[in-house]
Amino acid sequence: MILDRFRLPGSVAVVTGAGRGIGAATALALAEAGADVVLSARTEDQLGEVAERISATGRRAHVVAADLTDTDAAAGLADAAMSAFGRLDVVVNNVGGSIPRPLTDTSVEYLEEAFHFNVSTAHALTKTAVPLMLDGERPGGAIVNISSVMGRVAGRGFLAYGTAKAALAHYTRLAAADLAPRIRVNAIAVGSVATSALDLVLNNDEVRTTMESSTPLRAIGEPEDIAATAVFLASRAGGYLTGKVLEVDGGLQAPNLELGLPDL
To answer: Could you say which protein family the record assigns here (predicted)?
Structure first.
C-alpha cells in the first residue's frame, strides 16, 4: 500500500530543538510513523513532556537536555542515538533562529552567531551522524534540515537570520551531492508557522493580518504542516528526493516580505 511508504518501522531519529513547536511536532510525527526518537533542546521539562507523548504512541524516546549552540553537544547526539537504540537512520536539524535586527544594529559577531546556530550546529551533528548511518545492516538514511522562507525572500530586520537560512539551504544541496546515493539530504523552507517564535505576530492583529494577506493561502501554518513534510522526506515516500528544499510556506511568492519595520 502507498501509505506504507510513509512508515518508519524500526527506525531511529534524532530531532534537535525538540522541546516545543516544529521540533516537538516533528518528533511526535516520526514516532507515530514508527521511529524511536532522541530528543534534544535546552529545557528538560519540555523534552519530558514530548517524551511522554511519544511513549503513548508505543515508541521509545531518549531525552538529551543540552545547549546545542555547543557544537560538541550537537555532535554528541549521534552517539547518544547509538547508545540508546543501537542505530541511527534519520536526523532532523531543527535547532536555530535569530532575533530580527536592522542592518545597522547587526554586528559581525551577531551575524557569525546566527550562522553558527543555524548552520554550524547542523553540520556538527550531520558529520558525526553520517558514519553511523552508513554502518549496520541497513546502511543509509535521511537528513532533513529546517530552513526558512527568509532564506529566499527579503525583509527588513532579517539580515542575519535570512543569510544563515539561505546558507543552510545551499548546505543541503552540497551535502546531498556528497552523500548520495546512500544518504538523502533535503530541507524545508518554513513559512509563517504558529510557534512561540511567532508570538509577536500572533498577538498583534495588524501584523498578523499583514502576514496572512501576503500569503496566498491566507493563513498562518501549524507545526504539524512542517512535521508531515519531515516525515515525507525521512521516509520511503520521499525516497527519490535529495538536495531539494521544499517550500512549505502557504504559497508565498512575494520577493519582499514587509512587516512594518520603520524606514532608516
So the answer is: Belongs to the short-chain dehydrogenases/reductases (SDR) family.
223-234 and 21-32 helices, crossing angle to 10°: 50
Cβ pair 12, 85 in contact under 8 A: yes
| Residue of 110, 161, 171, 240 marked active site | 161
* Domains parsed from the chain with CATH numbers: 2-247 (3.40.50.720)
- Determine the Cα–Cα distance for residues 81 and 69; give it in Å rounded to an integer: 19
- pTM as predicted: 0.92
DSSP 8-state secondary structure symbol assigned to residue 215: S
Angle, CA of 85, 87 and 92, to the nearest 5°: 95
Q: Which of 94-98, 106-110, 140-144 has the lowest mean pLDDT?
A: 94-98
- Pairwise CA distance, residues 158 & 153, whole Å: 10
Could you read off the pLDDT of 31-75 as tens digits, one per residue? 999 999 999 999 999 999 999 999 999 999 999 999 999 999 999
DSSP at 263: P
- Report the alpha-carbon distance of residue 43 to residue 67 in Å, rounded: 9
All three cell numbers of 24: 516537538
Is 171 part of the annotated catalytic residue set? no
Residues β-bridged to residue 96? none
146 φ/ψ angles, rounded to the nearest 5 degrees: -95, 105
| Cβ neighbours, 10 Å, residue 202 | 16
Q: Are 213 and 159 in contact (CB under 8 A)?
A: no
Closest listed residue to residue 189, CA positions, set 146, 126, 144, 242 = 146
Cβ neighbours of residue 183 closer than 8 Å, sequence gap 6 or more: 130, 133, 134, 140, 141, 142, 143
